[in-house]
Each structure stands twice: as structure tokens, then as C-alpha cells.
Amino acid sequence: MPDFKSIGEFGFIDHIATHPTPKHVLCGIGDDCAVIAQSDTQVRLVTTDMMVERVHFLTDTPPEGLGHKLLAVNISDIAAMGGTPTDAVISLAVPANHDAGYLERLYNGLYACADRFNVAIVGGDTTRSHNQLVLNISLTGQMNCNHVCYRSGAQIGDLIYVSGTLGDASGGLSLIQDQIEMDQTDRTHLLRKFHRPEPRLELGQTLAATDAITAMMDVSDGVASDLRHICQRSEVSASLQASAIPLSDAFLNFCQKTKKDAIQLALSGGEDYELLFAIKPDRAKEIESLVQKSSAPKITCIGQITEGKDAIQITHEDNSRSPLTVTGYDHFKSTP
Amino acid sequence: MPDFKSIGEFGFIDHIATHPTPKHVLCGIGDDCAVIAQSDTQVRLVTTDMMVERVHFLTDTPPEGLGHKLLAVNISDIAAMGGTPTDAVISLAVPANHDAGYLERLYNGLYACADRFNVAIVGGDTTRSHNQLVLNISLTGQMNCNHVCYRSGAQIGDLIYVSGTLGDASGGLSLIQDQIEMDQTDRTHLLRKFHRPEPRLELGQTLAATDAITAMMDVSDGVASDLRHICQRSEVSASLQASAIPLSDAFLNFCQKTKKDAIQLALSGGEDYELLFAIKPDRAKEIESLVQKSSAPKITCIGQITEGKDAIQITHEDNSRSPLTVTGYDHFKSTP
How far is the C-alpha of B100 from the C-alpha of A3, rounded, in Å? Predict the structure, then answer.
């Protein structure tokens, strides 16, 4: 049997996902949340995330932001199904000499996010670690069973949309890792998108209620990787327009300064926590106008679902076309 | 602010438990499970546990047993409320060079336990760790809202019972840690109780349905510590009979061989995962007979709830009495 690095995170998940689940589990491993039948009309959603010091966050990461992010990225998973988060349990493994004040500030950030999104923190486990802080959250949500947006329903001809702008979080991460100097406004924008992702909860709920969304997920590993999941689960391909990818001024300034390919970084960088979704083509204008009237962020059409098996083509700004070869982030394959 | 070791696990939990929770959270932090109102008749139970390599298990711990134990100890929490487990999510943080075969065997143990107790593994998160394997489980259960057994209902005069025998798991742990030689039958018994705890699910459900149980929890940190939780939450004291503490022959042989005080170790040793509960005195005989007719393990009366505030007295075998000074396990306070 190989070691973990060589099979990777997704290889292992594919392996364990073969175990059968009972009928009331409407969706197990393989979507943003597990979906469990609760009554004739309601489903329960469950999602979980583990964050490890020096893998997902640095030892000097501001703890309030870390507490916010731990919960926010899981609310983002609930948003990606169209649901409403309800309650969470938190586990901590803490080195014995860890500053308890840091953890109190982490909980302050967690509770501030929980109170804003009406999530009750109902319990947890606190235990000892040797030399890394490890955090885990399991978040439960609920929604009407008829409105659940899976990754698997995209149809040929559907239009592919994304909310907000892409790449900002990876710009923020790069600012920290590579110690790049930038204009204060741009810097604040990029760091905020990295440290304080805003789950698109209202947008997810608005979209799900229209019944015009055929597939949805959140952008956690980068569109290049995440759109591939939609294509695989829906058994289709996709075509993207590079010129349509929504980029912030701050991110464009960052790419100019660092001489990075903006489109490539925007599609491959993780942790944007925007929503990526497919709309039935005849409903697209109506949905755009519905979102515009809400307080949700702008949505942008970036491409279309096409016939085929899990291939993504990109039309570049010079009108040339090529397969999208950039991939997203795999914690095992991407790190030494 | 002090470091984590000096305030300890329970100090930190007390601190974070002060945040208010909404009304549909019937019980948050402070019991075996969180209890959340689900409908007019049903509640949802949630419990979570994190297990860290070289804190909760050794690097060479057999993985099938570890997978079993991760789920079994959480089923034990559901059993302690009287509920039925339904589904779980699992998070893993794995060093990149970790043997994937070990994790496959861990999942085999987990799935074997899940299938036996009708628990669906519905999702999870797999990520990278630096040098420790970290496992987290969040288990959901359900039950009728009228039968939930909290820790907080014990009344003066109630009889205190425990299932099975106490101390076996700490005997098993000591066999591993101190490399003690013992007769094969005794050794197998103690190691099995440590590696493969059996959640008392049927017993918990049978007891909860009688409405004669005023408080219940599972024995995870040792009766000395766990009974104190019942006393604190119920605002009572307790009196124990040393001669009544149920001990296995294997554990008695182990204590004789290692010259350990059997009663002290049985009350302070953790991880027995038996049920500890208080019965209304006029219902005790009926409940004993009900359990005897089931396939659940024997239950034994070990003492009585008394007036007072969170003091536990023990009557020794020579009829002398003293306050119970031994305590249970705190991962932060008990380790260097």
C-alpha cells in the first residue's frame, strides 16, 4: 500500500466513498455537505473541516480571524447547497504550554461569526496536542428537500456563473508568505479576503429557491479544480471565457506587481469561498436581475456547460483556445 | 492570561460555556451530548471527540481497534442520554509519509463498528498534519424528547448504579505502558476492554425508556470524576460503598500482581465506557430485574445520592469513611 502523499487526498476519499450508505442518506461523501432526510419536507445538512497549525494557518495568524474562518468556510458549504446553518460542535487539540488568551480570542472570533449567522455552538471537545494547534468544526444545517443544489445536475448548455471576484484570497496568502509590499487599500482588501472570507449564505439561499440552479458548490480549491468536480459529478464538460473571469482591482495590481498570470492564479488559487453554479440558460437573465436587487454580491457568467467527459476548455483573451491544465490545491500533492 | 495547562480542560470549558445559546438548544456544553429540539416529539443529539497520536493512542496501536474506539466512545455518549446514533462525519489530519494501508485498516474498524450499530458515515475531511495523526468524529443521534437522561436530575435518596465492571481499561493501558506480564486470559480481557470498548447502547435505551433514571452519563474519566459531574449538575452529594464496586477477576489479579489499590484505580481510571446512573429508590428492584432479562450487562448499586454540595464520601471495606479524594483524568493537568 502506498503512502498518503502518493495517493493524495482525493484518491483516499474515492477509496473510502465506496462503502454503502443507507437510503435516508440522500448524499454522502462527494458534495459540499452530506444530505440526510429528516422529515417529508426537510433535510439535514452536515459538513466538517479540520484546520492544522502550519498547514492551514500560521502560528502568528490573528486568532479572531482564525475563529471566524473556521466557521465561515463551513457556512460556505451550507450556502453551496442553498441551506441554513443551525448549530456546530468544535474540537481543539492544544499544546499544553499554549497561551489560553489566544484561544479565548479565537473563540471571540468564532462567536462573533456564529452570532451573525444565527449558528449555535452547542458543544465540543478540548484535548492535548504535542506541538500543533488542531481545530475541527462540524456544522449542521437544514433546508427544504426540494431545493437542495447538488454538484451533479449540470446540463449541456447551462451557463456557468461565479459570485464576487476570484483570486483575492491567494493574493492575500502570497502577501503574507512572500512579504510583498503593496498599497494599503489593495493590501487590506486582499488580506481581508484571505483572513475573513464572507460566506455567500443569502446568495446561496436565494439561488436555491429559484429552482433554476442545476449545480452549485463553493470555490475552496480554485475554480479549475472545483468546476472539474461539477463536471465529473454531472458527466459533462465545460468551456470558460478568460476575459469574463471577474477580478478585483487589488488583485490585478497584485498580479502586475508580482508579474503573475492573473487568469491562471485566479482559477487555480484556493480559498475564495465564492459560489460557482450553473443556471438553466433560459432563466439566466431573470436570476441576474433577482440577485442584483438583493444585497448579495454581483454574479458573473464565466462560461458554459458543454458535451463531453470532464474536460475544461478555456478561450484566452487572444481568442485562442486550450484545455485548462492548471489544477487546484491538494494538501498532500502540493506540499513537500 | 495563563497557559492552557494551568487552567486545564475543564477550566477552559467552563469559560466558553458562558456564551448564551438559543432556546431550541435544550442542552449545550456540559453533558454527554448536546440536545437540540427537532420536532414536537424528537430531539437531535450531537457529540464529538478528537483523538491525537501519542496522547490518546500510540503510534503502534492496532488501527482496526482505533477505528472501532473512535466511533464506539461516541456511541457511548449517545447511549448515556438514552438515544439512538444515526450518522457521523470523520476528519483526519495525516502526516504526508503516513502509510495509507494503516488508514485503510482504521476505516475497516470504523465501518465494522458503524455497520453493527447502524451508523452511516456520511462525510468527512482529510488533510495534512506535520507529525501526528489526528482523528475527529462528530456523531449525531436522535430520541424521543420525553426520555432524555441528563446528568442534572439526581435527587437525594436515589440509588447510584454502574454497568459492567470498573478499572479494566486502565488495567489494559497499564499492561501496555508498563509491559506487565500476565496470564493470557486476564491479559486478553483487560486489553480488549481498553482497545475495544463496547458502548452500552441497548442498556442506555432500556433505562431511558423506564422514566426511572434521574441522571445518567458514561464513565470516560473514571467514576470519581464523572460522579462529581452528576453531583455538580444535580446540586447534590453522593456516598459510595467500596465493597460494592464491581471488579473483574482479571482486574483483581492485575492489582494483586502490581500491588495497586484496586478500589482507588477502579474509581480513578478512565475509559471504561460503562454507564453511571441514578435510579429513583422505589423503582430500583424493577429496573434491576428488567436489565437482568435483557442481553445488557449486569448493573450494580454502588451508593446513594445524599444531601450536600458536590462532596463524595466513600465507606471503605473496614467500615471507615472518608471523602473521596482521587480524581479522574484531565489531559492537561495529568501530563507533564
Answer: 5
Half-sphere exposure for A308 (CA within 13 Å, toward CB)? 13
Helix (H, G, I), strand (E, B) or coil at B186: helix
Grid coordinates 451530548 are at which residue?
B33
pLDDT in tens, A147-176: 999 999 999 999 999 999 999 999 999 998
Q: Where in chain A is the domain with CATH 3.30.1330.10?
A: 4-147
- pTM value is 0.92
Q: Do A97 and B125 touch (CB under 8 A)?
A: no
Residue extent(s) of CATH 3.90.650.10 domains in chain B: 159-323
Q: What's the complex ipTM?
A: 0.90
Residues B199-211 pLDDT 10s: 999 999 999 999 9
Q: What is the DSSP letter of B297?
A: P
Cα dihedral sign, B98-B101-B106-B111: positive
Tell me whether A101 touches chain B (CB under 8 Å): yes
Which CATH superfamily groups domain A4-147?
PurM-like, N-terminal domain (3.30.1330.10)
In CATH terms, the superfamily for domain B159-323 is PurM-like C-terminal domain (3.90.650.10)
- Which residues 6+ apart lie within 8 Å of A121 measured at CB? A87, A88, A89, A90, A110, A111, A114, B16, B19, B21, B28
Q: Which of A1, A34, A2, A77 is nearest to A333 (CA)?
A: A2
* Residue A174 and residue A258 in contact, taking contact as beta carbons nearer than 8 Å: yes
Residue B335, pLDDT score: 38
Please provide the DSSP assignment of B217-238 as one string.
EE-SS-HHHHHHHHHHHHT-EE
Which of B95, B122, B130 minimises the CB distance to A34? B122
Please indicate if any CB of chain B lies within 8 Å of the CB of A38: yes
- φ and ψ at residue B136, rounded to 5 degrees: -135, 140
CB-based contact (8 Å) between A108 and chain B?
Answer: no
Phi, psi angles (nearest 5°) of residue B31? -130, -175
* pLDDT, position B10: 64
| Look-up of cell digits 500510540 | B58
Distance CA B170, CA B168 (A): 6
Confirm if B203 and B283 have CB atoms less than 8 A apart.
Answer: no
Residue A115's CB: how many other CB atoms inside 10 A? Answer: 13
